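Entry type: protein chain
Record version: 2
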Amino acid sequence: MAWLACAPAAVSANVEPGRFLPRVKIALAAGQSLYHLPLTLADQLGYFKQAGVAVEWVVHESGAKAASSVLQGQADVLSGSFEHLFFLQQKVQGFQAFVQTGRTPQLSLGVSTRPGLVWRSVMDLRGLRVGVSSLDSATYWMTCHWLMNHGLLPEDVVFVPVGSAPQVVESLRSGAIDALCQPDPVMHWLEQKNEVRVVFEARSLAATRKLFGGMVPGACLMTTADFLQRQPERVQALSDAVVHALKWLQTAGLTDVLKAVPAGHWLGDRAIYLSAFEKLRESYAVDGILRSEEVMNAWRAHSRLPNGSALARVVPEKTYTNAFALKSRVRFSA
């Protein structure tokens, strides 16, 4: 199980020798997960470099900490759940998503199969300790959505911040938590190893529509209005590289994906990694464009969560811009 000790590199730059490229720091959590596959591909296939930008990955334990690092000026761009914008907009006016990488939340929740934990129905979640990356993260928000959609409340469970893989597996095995919400491939790996029973998922388009009554944006790149205005060329380069990777992904075979993704991302089992990718394949964005009706669906759903009343001050239409992704779509016929 060598993968458990293999944490993502904190900073990685893609710079052509002898050539200066403008640098952008992207903050994210679970950097080796399939959640960020389009960014991994854009990096490994050289699309960032082709677009004229050097990327540094600034990896954090949770999306909330990644978002904070952007607010504090430690990173330029956040890669994470679109829902972060509903709170970022309350702190920094003009914080916007500019290219979409995922079109479902790409998360699932599993209950431990260890002896002593009884599972008969969703009501058995009451009182369980649920591991999430942090209390202001997509894993927490998604768990709240699932609970409330099935007649429970967030306070019916005990949320335990556990960060992101690989330490989450040890938290589950040690009994520190009873259930876990995380992205793949970790959740699929645990499911295949019979260590969790997946009870909720928002990987597929169908499951996402059922939960939210329609589609919602998934992972996006987002940044401050100041960065959008001061560095439009760098933002466009990021958008171009991502849309290029999304275009590549539409026709890529499993062998192509395996060749492009570093072995350290496979969790020590390439068959399980590819199986997890197959479950998620339809969930990746096609052209990077954010759609108003999906943004509204997300806003309405999030307003029902704890402290959701604060979203009344957020104008959904101002949480994103398609100015950059539209140009990228034309360039790559996405």
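Comment: Residues 232-251 form the longest helix (20 residues).
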